[in-house]
Amino acid sequence: MNVPVLASDRLNFLPLSLAHLSQNYVNWLNDEEVYRYLETRGNYSLEILKTFLEDCETNRKLFWAIHLKSNNTHIGNIKIHPVNLRHGFAEYSIMMGNKEEWGNGYARESSERIIKYCFDELKLRKITLGVVAENSAAIRLYEKLGFGIEGVYKKHLIYDGKYCDVLRMAIFNSNFSYEDE
Fold it and tell me: 20 to 30 A from 138, CA-CA: which of 56, 93, 94, 179?
């Protein structure tokens, strides 16, 4: 799938690629506070990140690097994958790696822009995500964006040495018309 360059008021969204290979990016992936609720669990090196980014270039997923317009700093990533065009849905995830930029509303701005692209351009009817139930900051963001809880996977994943519930959340495209309703 072709990954377009997109923009919002304060951010640019560039296809994630080898151009994003940096020690700062490796540091995010090894920072326990950044990866606390992510499947990425540290132990990254420049070589491991390079292999990952090469895979991103080869297997074109909807995967963007989030950049500040003001200085072109890479501050995080946002991904829509997998995409199921037949059924009209996709899975969302986001990582805000640059902790100096936390609390500035960039996760919300990024999410709103990418969701708009998915609904308006790809004509998806639904976007889903999974979030660890203890990740209250992420849940607040998702609720502000319009995601609602569809279900709970009980004791599904291990975080901080214990099994945690995972909330399955979704947002629906308000412009989508179901023919049989």
Answer: 56
Higher pLDDT pick, 39 / 119: 119
Residues in contact with 80: Cβ distance below 8 Å, sequence separation at least 6, in sequence order: 61, 62, 63, 90, 91, 92, 114, 118, 127
| Percentages (nearest 5) of helix, strand, coil residues in the chain | 30, 35, 35
The verdict on whether 178 is a catalytic residue reads no
Residue 113 burial by CB count (10 A; 0-12/13-18/19+): exposed, middle or buried? buried
What amino acid is encoded at 34 in this protein? V
Closest CA to 129 of 120, 160, 121, 114: 114
Taking CA atoms, 82 is separated from 60, 68, 179, in Å, by 11, 26, 25
Asked: is 6-128 a CATH 3.40.190.170 domain? The reply is no
Which one of the listed residues 106, 117, 142, 163 is annotated catalytic?
A: 142
Those residues whose C-beta lies under 8 Å from the C-beta of residue 157, and which sit 6 or more positions away, are: 132, 163, 164, 166
* Structural domain boundaries in the chain: 6-128
SS3 100: helix
Verdict on whether the full-model pTM lies above 0.85: yes
7-60: per-residue pLDDT in tens? 999 999 999 999 999 999 999 999 999 999 998 888 999 999 999 999 999 988
